[in-house]
Amino acid sequence: MKRMRFVDLSITIEADLPSDPPEMIPKIDYVDHAAGAEQMKQFFPGVEKSQLPGGLGWSLEVLTLTTHSGTHLDAPYHFHPNMDGGKPALTIDQIPLEWCFSDGVLLDFRHKGDGERITVDDLEKKLQEIGYEIKPLDIVLIQTGAEDSWGTPRYLVRGAGMDRESTLFLTEKGVRVTGIDAWSWDRPLPFIAKEFQATKDPAVIWEAHFAGIEIGYCHMEKLANLSAIGRSHGFTVCCFPVKIKGASAGWCRPVAIIPEE
Asked: For the chain, how many structural domains are there in total?
């Protein structure tokens, strides 16, 4: 059996980090073992703390966050109610599992500036450079370098982003799951807003997400550790999302599985 190396591609969910808009920043209330002992007294009437190991009980955490907090997989329903020519868009609990376990492809665009588009031409040149041809159900990971700003407000404006045409370039080849190490699959929102104010062209708004109306697909956002994969292809990605009924996204812990000699 070949040896395998596993690379965690997710960020850790932490409270109060300014890398999301204020209304999306996770909150975590920690119930420690001492407080857990008090809770256990409610479930087991008559028990004394002294009867518990070290006078301590369970621990648990209460989280307040959105389905788009932390590393997550966006479902087509996030983009629009419809996909694939008017069919109902899939919610996260409806995503086919085979979409989420497949060959991975890593495309490095760290040379692109913050807010720049990653175009079809960029994709074609990079694929030629690494000698790879996209096939159906490949999981395509886009590296922008934004992850180096995680934990800071700058993360919200870091990295290049995909556009409508480059997203369709992938989905027309049968790609159904993609991912990026930035806050959004699109360019950072402030750059899009600035362009819209200058041009008044609504086509620039969320163009890569809205490409999912034409061909339904999922993308991961807030990936990390892409450099640790160490290759452009020849690895597997596993990224099963948490099932949330009727939801637009689900948290996931994507892993790159890399064979080693």
From this structure: 2
Q: Is residue 5, in this structure, part of any structural domain at all?
A: no
Q: 178: Cβ–Cβ under 8 A, 6 or more apart, which residues?
A: 139, 140, 141, 142, 167, 170, 185, 217, 218, 219, 220
Q: List pLDDT tens digits, range 188-234.
A: 999 999 999 999 999 999 999 999 999 999 999 999 999 999 999 99
Is residue 104 domain-shared with residue 39, that is, in the same domain? no
Instruction: For 6-43, give the secondary structure using H, E and C.
Output: EEECECCCCCCCCCCCHHHCCEEEEECHHHHHHHHHHH
Q: Is the pTM of this model over 0.90?
A: yes
Q: What is the pLDDT of residues 76-86, one digit of tens each?
A: 999 999 999 99
Tokens 């995503």 locate to 95
In a domain, 112, yes or no: yes
